[in-house]
């Protein structure tokens, strides 16, 4: 919340934005969210936490801005989520979550982890050859 307030009160330019700020401290993700940006926590290939968006109506999210029709930082929500080692946090603006369903996101995460595992095996095999 401190980071969001600092940005909000020190910005002089016109405009608005949704916001999602995450900080990981030990096994807790501390989040501040305003609008339809969000994050999900994926554990063992399944979404275990999905931050709900803030909106005034359909396709009308809260917007942090410095104009009359925009919101201020006081409407931001603060969230704490317990995470585990190997959880994957996916954080994005609404475009990802509007166009990729949960099942597809879970599959992308599983496929990506398989690619990383295969890459790790490849590099371990390469480094063994270099040591000789």
TrEMBL record:
Its cofactor is Mn(2+); Mg(2+). It catalyses: O-phospho-L-seryl-[protein] + H2O = L-seryl-[protein] + phosphate; O-phospho-L-threonyl-[protein] + H2O = L-threonyl-[protein] + phosphate. InterPro entries: PPM-type-like_dom_sf (IPR036457), PPM-type_phosphatase-like_dom (IPR001932), PPTC7 (IPR039123). PROSITE patterns: PPM_2. It comes from the Eukaryota. Residues 1-132 form the PPM-type phosphatase domain. Its EC number is 3.1.3.16. Keywords: Hydrolase, Magnesium, Manganese, Metal-binding, Protein phosphatase. Belongs to the PP2C family. This is Protein phosphatase. It comes from Solanum tuberosum.
């Amino acid at each position: 919340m401190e980071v969001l307030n600092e940005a909000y009160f020190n910005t002089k330019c016109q405009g608005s934005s949704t916001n999602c700020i995450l900080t990981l401290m030990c096994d807790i993700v501390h989040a501040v969210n305003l609008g339809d940006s969000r994050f999900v926590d994926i554990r063992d290939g399944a979404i275990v936490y999905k931050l709900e968006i803030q909106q005034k109506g359909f396709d009308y999210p809260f917007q942090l801005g410095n104009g009359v029709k925009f919101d201020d930082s006081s409407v931001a929500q603060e969230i704490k989520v317990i995470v585990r080692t190997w959880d994957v946090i996916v954080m994005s603006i609404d475009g990802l979550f509007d166009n990729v369903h949960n099942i597809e996101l879970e599959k992308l995460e599983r496929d990506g982890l398989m690619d990383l595992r295969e890459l790790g095996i490849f590099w371990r095999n390469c480094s063994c050859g270099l040591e000789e």
